[in-house]
Each structure stands twice: as C-alpha cells, then as structure tokens.
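WARN no homologs supplied; continuing
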Amino acid sequence: MTTPADHHDQPAAAAAANPVNCDLPSGSLHRTILRRLLSRPTTVAVTDDSRSYKGIEIIVAALHVATAIERATDKRHVGLLLPTSGATPIAALAAWMTGRVIVPLNYLLKPSELQYVVDHAGIDTIVTVQPMLDFLDEQPKVKTLLKLDEMNFKRLPRPRIPAKRNPTDLACLLYTSGTSGKPKGVMLTHGNVTASIHAACKHAEFQKGDTFLGVLPQFHCFGLIVLTLVPLAIGCPVVYTARFVPSKLLRIAQKHRPSVFVAIPAMYNALSAVKDPPSDAFTKLRYCVSGGEPLPEAVADAFKDKFGVTINEGFGMTETSAASHWCLPQFYKRHAVGPPLPGVAQRIVDIETGNDLPPGTDGELRLTGPMVMQGYYNDAEATAAAFDDQGYLRTGDMARIDEDGLCYITGRLKEMLIVGGENVFPREIEEVLCAHEHVAAAGVVGQPDPSRGEVPIAFVEAMEGSTLDDAELIRFCRDHLAGYKVPRRVVVLEKLPRNPTGKVVRRELKAMVESTA
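OK structure emitted
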C-alpha cells in the first residue's frame, strides 16, 4: 500500500488535538455559517486575490447585499456570476438571508448557453462584478445586474433576522455542465448541502488548524460546497485564486501552507510541469484530493516525484451535493475513490438486469443518502429516470467494490463501447495512452464499424515541447492492450476540448469523428 510522504504525518498529528465541531443543524445552512462567523468575528475566514475577509466583514457585506437583492427582485431564484473569490460566500449568504435560492452561473458557457440557464431558472437579477461582465462575450439579458463593486459597503447595513429555512427547502439550483445535451438544474436543499458538509467533516476529521486552498470555480458543485461552504461551516480559513496559473498557485501555497487541496487531474499535471517549484509549497498538506475525472497514473506519479505528495482520489456528482466517496490517506489504494461517506449507501448492479452484484464485479454504481438531490428543476421526466425502483440514484458510472469496501470507478455507462461484442471503456485506453512519456492527456470515443459494431478512436494532447506520432502511439497501445481495445486511429490535437471543470468533452470528439467518417 502506498502512503503519503512521511513529512505529512507530523502536521496531521499536531492538528489532531483540535477537531472541529461536525454536529451541524440540519436546516438553514446560512444560519450555521453565520453563527460560525460570529464566533470568530475578527479572524480571517476568506482570502482571495484582492483581499482578506474577517468573519464580521463577511456578515456586514452580506447584510448590504441582502438589502440590495430585496430591492431588486421578488423572484425566488437569484443568479451569482462571480469569480472564485470571497464574493461568492457573501452573495450566497445574502440571498439565503432573504429566503431565496442561489443559482451559480457558469461564466465559461457560450452566450446562448448561459442565457438558456438564466431563462430556465427564471432569473431576473444577477449578483456580479464589472470585471466578470467584461470577461463575457455577451452579457446575459436580465432586468438587474447587481454589481458588488459599485455598492457602498462603508455605511452600517440594515439589521435583519435571517430567514429560517427547513431541511426540505431549496438552497441551490446547480446546472450540470451539459456535456451530453442541455444543462439540467439540480435541486439541492438546505438539508442536502448540510448533510454533505457533515459527512465530509466526519469522514475527514477536519481540524481547527486546517487551511483550504481553492481554485475550482464556485459555480461548480465541488468549488461551491467542498471549497466554499465546508470551510465556512466548520470554521476553517480558505484561500482562493480566481485563475489557475500553476506558478502563481505554488506561490500562494508556499505563503499560506494549505492542509487541504482539491483539484482536477489536468491541474496536477500542470503543477508537475512547473520548473524549479518552491520545495515547501505542499509540506503541510494533509489531504490532497483529485476529482472530476479519473486520475491517470502518470499524473499521480509525476506529482509524487515532484512534491513528495500522494494524491488521493474522490468521487461525487452535482446530484450528490459534491463528494459521495473519498479515499483518505490511511487506506489509499491506487485508482480507488474510497469508501462512501457517512450516510451514503451504495449498490453495484448489473446493467442488463438491475440485480445487485458481488464485490469485485463491474456494474453501475447507484447511491442513496440525505445528500442526494431532490430532482431536476422543471423536468419531472428526467427526475423519474434518474432513480431506480428502490430510490437509488442512477449515477451512470461503472464501478466495482473491492474486499475492503473501497470503490473504483471504471467508466461511464454512456461512454461504453461494444467492440466485436466486448465491452470496452474509454478510461482503460486513455490510461495506457497517458502512460506514454509524451502524452499529456487523452480522450477516446467510438466510431461505427460494419464488421465490429464499433471501434475506438483516440484523441491525444502532447506534453509541452513534445511531438507525437500516431503510428508510434498505436504500437504503444498494442504492447499494453488486448487487440480489440487498440484504437483504430490516433488523432493528435493541440488541445483537447474540455468543459469548465476540466473534463474532456466527448461530445465534441464524437462530432470530429462523425465529420471525418
């Protein structure tokens, strides 16, 4: 069993005497956060690229924004169009204080896609800042753009009693990235999000000395819940940077010495490529977590070689209020995403019969628990299809459970290829391609074939300064894969198409295959 570098044992042991309180009330998420901020009003809770915010400063700013929201709209849903920063928790608390639901908006969408989300959610007011609007190709069409950078926060805010919400009341409407069609609005309640925070806290045993480092966008479930609401709710400081610039992130890590860092594989790969990084940037990391997509072995090994840190994988979905699984360092196994978090129940079922499968067998992963969504907004048909007859969420992910209860994600059900009657998952082929010393990333899709039904087609992205030869890569695959899994073609791209969370957009790769067929 591989474990993190020995230098991580001392900070973990030192922090163990100061556990945070994980017993959170089940309703009114914002009241939990406000109480935590009030308990340490002069302590810095959030630091971003422009400034630091003490607990009382976040509360005062949120009170101002709450008044502005009430004056601007009587709609139930309020859009948040903000960079990764302290502005997001302020705007979220403000909206919740008034009893409203937040809709974090993906600023990387095309204008038509962003407008679709705005219209579908019924938003007429968006909390934003002018630099974010300048970043967009086209501003969304709404009645009010409430710009935080034009508000006066120096005067005393109007006092208010924050709205009380029940666990079943909606807190967030988070739109999926839409890699396979129009985005769907995932309905998460105050109870869902609080249960997710509670489970992560219990599982990880966070300590009062922990510091979170966040670069994932806060419109995404992991960025919002794991890197924004978790630290605020348990009283740990969090440091944000709005743009992922590897050398800058390492300088921030060197300065703030985070103990919790969550990122996606592409980010870890880029950090490993930084020349002469500071040797002490990650020496206090207790939890180094990768999510969003499978972590290639080559990326994990390069990061371990460069920084002496083992990356642990986790798994979750917007539909499960972020993390449902997390492999902690003490039971690390390569490729395992860990056991389910407290409160999560899992099944592995046969994709043909729906029957439960024994340990060690691949099938669809299905989940239930208090953090699982209420459904998709204004889409009863999709909501019904998302759950099986036992009430378990159909994740669409293929997985297996080992003898120790650890889960391994082996592929996406919708991405599975059937080659000559054999099931082939793109991840296995991508893992082999990424093991090649000159391949930075890979994506595999299927192409119809008259004799075999389907054949795999691979798209690859080269390491910086490297060149790739498609014939060589096919030979490399033949040395490491069964014959029917070897890609029929390998296409070299300057950059693979990715969504804002870093996942390869297979729909675009599929369109490339179809256009050249």
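Residues 1-16 have pLDDT under 50 and may be disordered.
OK
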